Amino acid sequence: MDKKVLFVGLGNPLRNDDNVGIFFLELLEELDLPSCWELIKCYRNPENYLCELLSSKSNIIVFIDSIQGTDQDISILSEEEIKDFSFSTHTFGISTIIKYLKSSKDVNFFLIGIKPEKLEVGSGLTQATRRRAIFLFREFERACKKAIG
């Protein structure tokens, strides 16, 4: 497999379901991942991790974050859809980060968005958001087993 994928967890651990991207990456860390998959937690400020993102040998970067304003529990957005989607609680929006990275690196981007229930100050995910993340994790778990054999 010549495609390398970097999964980037985003979220604020102090704002309930906003942390779902980080929670999801922590679940992935428990798996025996294919060698072409990398993980990085960027929390609420992906701009602080630009060197790590640029130095990755991945040709696909997948951001995982909570997203509001959608009826879908889980959404997979292409790079073009991310540009027109304003939802971020981050200092710099993901589209700004993508624009910067594309100026220095040939890479494709996707966003896996998990619908939050509660974004107030506090720790811990709501049950509904946790259930969505675990459902997505089970799908990834199956993909990992299939990829590794």
In terms of structural class, how would the helical and strand content be classed? alpha/beta
Global geometry: globular
Tell me the β content. Answer: 15-25%
The side-by-side strand order for the widest beta sheet comes to 2-1-3-5-4
Largest sheet: 5 strands, mixed
Order of helices and strands: EHEHEEHHEH
Radius of gyration: 15 Å
Low-confidence stretches: none
Number of strands: 5
List keywords for this structure.
single chain; 149 residues; alpha/beta; 5-stranded mixed sheet; 34% helix; globular
Describe the structure.
- The chain is α/β, with parallel strands linked by helices and 149 residues long.
- It is built from 5 helices and 5 strands.
- Strands 2-1-3-5-4 form a 5-stranded mixed sheet, with helices on both faces.
- Strand 1 (5-10), helix 1 and strand 2 form a beta-alpha-beta unit.
- It is globular and about 35 Å long.
- The two termini are 13 Å apart.
- The model has no long low-confidence stretch (mean pLDDT 90).
